[in-house]
Give the backbone structure.
Amino acid sequence: MGRRLCPVEALKEVHVSTTEVGRHERLAEVVPDVLAAIHEVLERHRVTEDEWYAVLRFLTEVGRADEFILLSDVTRTSVLIDAMSHGADDAATASDVEGPLYREDPPWREAPVKVYEDYEGMGDGEVLFVRGTVTSTDGAPLRDAVVDIWQTGPSGGYDVWDERQPDFNFRGRFGVDESGAYEFQTMLPKPYTVPTDGPVGRYLEAVGQHPWRPAHIHFKVTAEGHAPLVTQVFFPDDPYLENDTIGAVKAALVRPLERHDGAERGLDAPFVTCDFDIRLRPLAAQG
Ligand SMILES: [Fe+2]
């Protein structure tokens, strides 16, 4: 009684027995509205029994395929929840959707940080150095910050989709220096399609929605006393910036690329750099 649980945790704890009926206030408040909205749509479209059972079979398949996060993403529900959860705070770096491709316990990478190993299939991918400073919203450097990134390789896929890549390729956690500065060597990601071989792929085809996402790098950044930040960085001139299938592009997160001659860093090919400063919101300022 009185303990606030998120609805998901509450569902794990609510056991309805013949002698005691649990009631979770937040669920009791939201669920009737969810049902009213669903019922209204079913009535308005005169949805048939066959159609409704097809919906139930589809949702069952989504669960079995572990694609509910993906479904939330492509229906732009994740973006809505992100916007309501983090709001607009110009002082802090904008948050963004985490997506379903994060893997727990990525490797710790020591400086100079390189988040990938060369692999067959990387082709003519461009080397990219991403760099910036992690500070509090007042500009103070956060020396204990930990940056955790994950992205696709230049062959267009995450390590979990691409057998040619070593495990945890293009993933990694690392620290910052005394001034809060970080830098990591990666390769410029490319646009990719979300998985289309499961029930969500069939859904996208059925509603006529393309499966493409613009190239991006995912970030999770943490520091003592500050709200953790989950976000993504995008790059200009991507064909899907205006039409991301999960609708997650924010103008402030599109960061310019600068091209350099390889000789500047002793590389045998030109490379690109991207500056991305990260500002975290102090927990006390959250109210
Ligand atoms: Fe992604």
Summary: Helices lie at 7-13, 25-44, 49-64, 68-74, 77-86, 199-207. Residues 227 and 252 are 19 Å apart (CA to CA). Residues 99, 101, 216, 218 surround fe (ii) ion (CB under 6 Å).
